[in-house]
Structures are given as structure tokens and as C-alpha cells.
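Entry under discussion copied across for reference:
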Amino acid sequence: LGPSCGRSPGQKRSSVTLNGFSRSSEYAIRALTYLSQEDRIENYHLVREMAEQLGLPAPFLGKLLQPLVARGILLSQRGRNGGFRLARQPQEISLFEVVDAQENLEARRQCLLGQAECTDERACPLHNYWTTASEAFLERLNNTTLADLVRFCEENPESGYPCALAQVEPSGSE
């Protein structure tokens, strides 16, 4: 089992993020990584317990897991031994699938500078850069699986992922 997921006293979240994901996708990836770890993969897990371990709000976590059930990424079961578990093996679930369930990635493809029409013919100043960067990002999501994240966690236990919150700094440091 990995380290405890709670923050140490006096630690806070960093306020600087350049995250390409919504909070829903971030939490979904963390929850699925948690469920993908070897000691958890076969059993159903309650949202409340996962949320506590991951330091996430339980109602929000429960809500964002539903699209993953609808997409066949998770199984859910009600009742005494209920909860959520992976529907497939971690190596069969790409991050693209997880993020797309939360954000509909095709619909998100829009101009970085907010132009209503941004095409090769009517490009904004960042069109070529953004097209290349976003295609590389989506390819990386498609080629990265939950098994890759679990492998990272095993090779880098000091990261605390998936439990660790974003970069933490000791209180009082600037």
C-alpha cells in the first residue's frame, strides 16, 4: 500500500497550474489510478472510502464516476458489497478514454485565442502551434494507459500519486 493520502500539517496546495484537464478529469484519473493498483483491482470500492483516501469531495467524485460507468470503463454495484471497480484491465484503458468521458475532447477543440472560426485558411496567430501541440497532447493521452500510471507510482513511490494533492509547499515558504 502507498503512503497516506492526507496533507501534512502546514502544507498547502500550490496555486500555480497550467493543467490541460478539468478538475473532473484530474479527479477521475486519480480515482482510476487508485482502483488500478494491484491490491484494489478485483474489489468494489465505496466512493466515500476512495474520496477519503484521495482527499477528494465524495459527492463530486461519485458524480464524475457515472460517465465512466456509462462508457464501460467502470462497473458499479449497489448494495452491501457495492461500489465501483474497473470494467477492464488497466492496460486496456487509455487516459484519452477517461478524459473524453469527462470533457468530450472533440467538442473542446477550439481556438486557443477564442476566435469563432480558426482554420488553416482563417488562422489565429497561435493556430499552427496549437494544432501541433494539441495533436501531440491527444496522442499522448491515447498512448498512455492506467497501467502506465500504476507503473509510475510503483517506480516513484515518493510522488505519493494518486493520493498526493498538487505540489505542496511547507507553510511559511515563499
Q: What stands out?
A: The chain is about 45% helix and 10% strand. The chain has a mean pLDDT of 82. Residues 30 and 162 are 5 Å apart (CA to CA). The two ends are 32 Å apart (CA to CA).
